[in-house]
Amino acid sequence: MTNENFHGITIIGLGPGNPDLITRETWNWINSLEEIYLRTAQHPVLVDFPSQLKIHSFDSVYETTERFEDVYQNIVDKVIQLASTGQDITYGVPGHPYVAESTCDKIVKQAALKGIPCRVLEAVSFLEPVFTALALDPFPNIVMMDALEMADANFPQFPPSKPVLIAQVYSRMIAAEVKQTLMEVFPDEHPVKLIHAAGTDGQCIENLALYEIDRSPKIGILTSLYVEPLPLGSSFEEFQEIIAHLRAPDGCPWDRKQTHQTLRKHLLSETYELLSALDEDDPEHIREELGDLLLQIVLHAQIGAEDGEFTFAEINKGIYDKIIRRHPHVFGSVEVDGVETVLTNWDQIKADERKQNGKKEENGMLSGVPKEYPALAQSQEIQDRAARVGFDWETIEPVIQKVYEELEEVKDAGTPEERAKELGDVLFAIVNVVRWYDVDAEMVLRETNQRFRNRFNFIEEKITSEGKGFQDYSFEELDLIWEEAKKTGL
Fold it and tell me: Per the domain annotation, does 111 fall within a domain?
């Protein structure tokens, strides 16, 4: 169908800004028009439009509508409404109609539903001149993102070891919000480029550090941001590839031999090593141990994928959905008045999940406390859950008194079996005291264990430096050295 006898909606791209980059077909169509509707009149090529062409723009919609989603839908509705009267409509947008344009695909779909003929004339997008300005071939791995989505995010949604082009950095405010998101991963001094008005006479590239981007006075509607990649191995996908390689036929014999069962001891070991690093409060050690634990997790995921049990995408999706489902006060409309309400809702949501999954409530609320937990942690979790439904004292005094009562029952125990039972009750009662003081029992005991280690090591080093052994000291003499260790801050 030729231009002359097409009737309906014609969507055209006005290119990146240089009139020479508008296609011949589009220029011919523009010159045949009496009027045109533009998403925005803020585009350099308008000065070259035919003088008799009547221009309508939707710029006023931006001024009267708060959310961009509503702006775009408003424009779509207006274009469809105009076309529904039977008149031919030409709608123009910057760049290419299908590149970084939220209105064009919606117009095409809506027109199809209403039986309105619709066509799109090809155009040069902003991408071609941007890549020319950067002297960069985007293949094979550049990532393209929208500045508005990046500004709304709390964390960059792309692998940081891939170069990324962020479009529509149209204001310094948006640049500041994009910067804050990127700085969750990238260093403040990370090299970036701001590309302004690519493909026009005003083209300019600024080489900056990431923290500087919102200071540029040149930012405008034709600005994009290019972010250099972090070193190879910085992305999670690359780590998955490494693990898959280890398990491949040409990989490591030891890794290929492992199963879910053989890795259990390593998972437990790495978990405790991470806990030890957390006790030390050493960020560098914590980082290293988190990596070691992540290795175990990804190994299990790779084995599961190879055995057809599950994929890592399914693991991600499962926990993603669970977090959203269990936080309706964050991702939904539920209102809470504090932590206690959050925990109560959490327990109810978990109970509903168990019912939906057909799981029996054999032990009620306590069924979710993992029996694999260390005993102290298991005790505290059991008491926490019981307290949430009101099974708890109102003050701490009877909680402390319970410890003394249990100690008396230890004294009164008549057999070793009874004494062991009562000692267990003492420990359980002490954990309840710890819980009432809002402290983690497992953590404080680990810290106490470490203090004992440090002080005992002090004693051992001192008696060794004197050329003696433990047998050369009475308990009272060793206790004096213990007190000396305490005074040093150990």
Answer: yes
In tens, the pLDDT along 353-410 reads 777 776 655 556 777 777 777 888 888 888 988 888 788 898 999 999 999 999 999 9
**DSSP symbol at 210:** G
Q: Are residues 292 and 310 in the same domain?
A: yes
Which of 94, 120, 146 is a domain's end point?
120
Instruction: Give one DSSP letter per residue of 265-311, joined into a string.
Output: HHHHHHHHHHHHHHHHT-HHHHHHHHHHHHHHHHHHHHHHHHTTS--
Q: Which amino acid is at 137?
A: D
Q: Which two tokens stand for residue 366?
A: 């306590």
Q: Are strands 89-93 and 191-196 parallel, antiparallel or unpaired?
A: unpaired
What's the domain count of the chain? 4
- Could you tell me the residue range of the domain that residue 463 belongs to? 442-487
User: What are the tokens at 303?
Assistant: 């084995």
- Rounded to an integer, the average pLDDT of 146-165 is 94
Pair (108, 22) in one structural domain: yes
In this prediction, residues 460-471 reach a mean pLDDT of 90
pLDDT exceeds 90 at position 317: yes
pLDDT recorded at residue 64: 85
Question: Which residue would you say has higher pLDDT here, 5 or 402?
Answer: 402
Same structural domain for residues 101 and 203?
Answer: no
65 and 22 both lie in a single domain: yes
In whole angstroms, what is the distance from residue 6 CA to residue 89 CA? 11
